[in-house]
Design brief:
This protein is of the alpha+beta class. Helices cover about 30% and strands about 15% of the residues. It contains five helices and six strands; from the N terminus they run βββαβαααββα. β3, α1 and β4 form a beta-alpha-beta unit.
């Protein structure tokens, strides 16, 4: 695969979504979970979506249960959770794996494009202890380290940034505005 537009993924209802349908859009791809300390980022993602969707922003959420079982629900339960708790209107797709031999090919490709930003977690960050315990306080290598990792693509399908879980949707607003 040479481009993000070469991939097809599965919607929560089992039908296929062709990423070529997003040509000309700014695209933010996020692996999500319902029972994670970062789950409240759904609210920020929805605010971004509402603020910029008419200008060409699309957000795709990929539920993943690989991080301490924090996305145990079925595709239908995940949809209901997102809608009822956060009013999510952007697409939340079928549950996937993002690491390992069964990782979604899209995620394998995205990880090969960009190893990720180095995140020095400040001592006063509410997830400091977690990141020290699990990651030594830094993002390393290509694997997705946790839920709510983010990949940002420009209108031409070029990956312009990869952001670790502590990077909030609000922190991406200025970057998204420049791409729009």
């Amino acid at each position: 695969m040479q481009s993000i537009y070469d991939f097809k993924v599965q919607k929560s209802d089992g039908s296929e979504l062709n990423l070529a349908d997003y040509k000309g859009k700014v695209l933010l791809i996020v692996n999500v979970a319902s029972k994670c300390g970062f789950t409240p980022q759904y609210e920020g993602l929805e605010k971004l979506y509402q603020a910029y969707k008419d200008q060409g922003l699309e957000i795709l959420g990929f539920p993943c249960n690989q991080f301490e079982g924090q996305e145990p629900g079925s595709n239908q339960e995940i949809q209901e959770f997102c809608r009822m708790n956060y009013g999510v209107t952007f697409p939340v797709l079928a549950k996937v794996e993002v690491n390992g031999e069964n990782a979604l090919p899209l995620y394998q490709w995205m990880k090969d494009q960009e190893p990720g930003e180095l995140v020095d977690v400040p001592r006063d960050h509410k997830f400091y202890d977690f990141f020290i315990e699990h990651h030594g306080g830094k993002h390393w290598g290509k694997d997705i380290p946790w839920n709510f990792s983010k990949f940002l693509f420009d209108r031409n399908g070029k990956l312009v940034g990869r952001y670790a879980s502590p990077t909030t949707p609000e922190e991406l607003a200025e970057k998204i505005e420049k791409l729009l």
